[in-house]
UniProtKB/TrEMBL annotation:
Single GO MF annotation: DNA binding
SUPFAM superfamilies: Dimeric alpha+beta barrel
Protein name per UniProt: DNA-binding Lrp family transcriptional regulator
Record keywords, A-Z: DNA-binding
Species whose genome carries this gene: Nocardiopsis algeriensis
Domain Transcription regulator AsnC/Lrp ligand binding residues, every copy: 6-76
Domain of life: Bacteria
């Protein structure tokens, strides 16, 4: 599974509807409204790199109200859950 973190700038008055529209796109697992230099962060999870082109520039960037996006592709996930399962001793 390939994970991409997509930072999205949106028209301020349309943030809620933009977030809801992006959340409905196949391949988008979560959308967060955030503070800082962007308005939304979307988590995209797909099976193939080619699918990123379909989801992000093909769908996410075409949602009315999206101004721009910046995509970061994940190499590896590190989380407390992953570390706990890696070091579990069968409890």
């Amino acid at each position: 599974m390939i994970t991409a973190i997509v930072m999205i700038k949106a028209e301020v008055h349309r943030i809620p509807e933009v977030a809801e529209a992006i959340a409905e796109i196949e391949g988008v697992s979560e959308v967060y409204s955030v503070t800082g230099g962007v308005d939304l962060v979307a988590m995209v999870r797909v099976r193939r790199h080619e699918d990123l082109a379909v989801v992000i520039p093909g769908r996410v960037n075409k949602v009315p109200g999206v101004i721009s996006s910046d995509t970061h592709i994940s190499f590896q996930a590190y989380s407390r859950h992953d570390l706990e399962s890696a070091f579990a001793i069968g409890w």
